[in-house]
Structure formats: C-alpha cells, structure tokens
C-alpha cells in the first residue's frame, strides 16, 4: 500500500515537473524512459540542449535535501548515456537535471546536477 501511494505521488510529481518545464519553454521528448541500466523520468529539449531529468517528490520540503544522492545520479547518467543518441544530434548539448517538488513549494530545478 505504501509503495502504491509513493508511485502515485511520483507520477503526480513527474506531471508537475513536466508542466514546469513546458512553462519554461522546454519540449518533452519522453517520459519514464527505461533502459537496461536505469530509468529516466523525463527527457526534455530546449533549443540545442537535451536534458535527462530526475524528478523527486517529497511530502515535506525539509526532506528534499536528501532526495537525490550520488547513486541515483550515476544511474540516471548511465541511462542517459545508453540512449542519448536517440534524442540528440551531433553537436547538441546534453546534461542531467533534477527537479525537486514538495507541496506548497515552487519546483526547484537543479541545472547540470551531474558533472563527472
């Protein structure tokens, strides 16, 4: 039951993140992209930039500080590397972003969260 609730909140968070990105001029290329090495919540494009976005929703804003760790970022980076050729052309820029969400709070967009 708890896992199902978390799944519902996660999907709502991803929708909120998608709407947030669209309002900032991004196009959404894919949602919940699964790869053999991990899942990417959103793939978005703005101009010549493709962002692979990890979305984290927490019931309390205080918990957002620990929502994303190195392990999760590595998995998103590995997944992005596996499928980047499907979304970006040569000469375009790629990055890993994070969007943190909590009730009653504006989304917090962490740009270029993964820098190996």
UniProtKB/TrEMBL annotation:
Signal peptide: none annotated. Belongs to the UPF0102 family. This is UPF0102 protein GRI40_00925. GO terms for molecular function: nucleic acid binding.
């Amino acid at each position: 039951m708890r896992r199902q609730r978390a799944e519902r909140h996660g999907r709502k968070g991803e929708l909120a993140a998608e709407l947030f990105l669209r309002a900032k001029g991004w196009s959404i290329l894919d949602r919940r992209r699964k790869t053999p090495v991990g899942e990417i919540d959103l793939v978005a494009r703005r101009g010549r930039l493709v962002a692979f976005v990890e979305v984290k929703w927490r019931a309390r804003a205080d918990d957002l500080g620990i929502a994303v760790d190195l392990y999760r970022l590595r998995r998103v980076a590995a997944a992005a590397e596996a499928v980047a050729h499907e979304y970006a052309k040569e000469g375009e820029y790629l990055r890993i972003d994070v969007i943190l969400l909590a009730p009653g709070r504006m989304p917090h967009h962490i740009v270029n969260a993964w820098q190996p």
